[in-house]
Amino acid sequence: xxxxxLEFSSAWWPEDSLGFNLVWDDCCKVNDNWIPxxxxxxxxxxxxxxxxxxxRSLLGFYTLKQHPTTLFTxxxxxxxxxxxxxxxxxxxxxxxxxLQKFVGSVFQVPTPVRILRSDWKSNxxxxxxxSFRTIHSEEKAASxxxxxxxxxxxxxxxxxxxxxxxxxxxxxxxxxxx
Length: 178
Hints:
Elements: E1 2-7, E2 19-21, H1 27-32, H2 40-44, E3 60-64, E4 67-75, H3 78-83, H4 88-103, E5 114-117, H5 144-148, H6 166-174
Antiparallel strand pairs: 1-4, 1-5, 2-3, 3-4
C-alpha cells in the first residue's frame, strides 16, 4: 500500500469537497479476468481511455484540510509496487488521466505542480507499509507490546517519541510539508 500526494497551483474542486471516490464502470470485466499476482506487463496495459490497468487499485482522490491545494490517493497491492517504479512525470500524467475520466466533465483538471509519494515497498528500511502478526509473533519478539516499544540508540536514547505510530511518524519525516 502506498500514498500519493498531488499538489496543484490552486484548488479546482469545491472548497467543501472531501474528495472523489472511484467506481469503474467496467470493474466486473476487469475483476473476472484478474489474476492474483499480475505481471507488470499486465498492469501497464491500457484500457480504451488510455488508463493503465494498475490505476484500478486507486481508492479515490481526497482533500487535505490543512493543504487546500493538495489531493491524495492510496494505491494497493501489486499495483503499488509498480507505481513505485514509475518516474514522476509518467505517474502525474496517469493520475491526471484518471481524474479527467471521473471528473473531467465537471472540472478542468490541470497538471499537478508537484507530486510526493511513499515508497514503502522498495524502501530498504521499511519493505512494506504494514506488518501482519501471526500466532508465532510472540516467540519471535514481534508482538504488539514489543513493536510498541520505542527504538533506542546504543546510548539507550529513544530515536522517536514512543507515542508515535511508526507509519505516521515515517510519513511525517518523508512529507514534512503535508
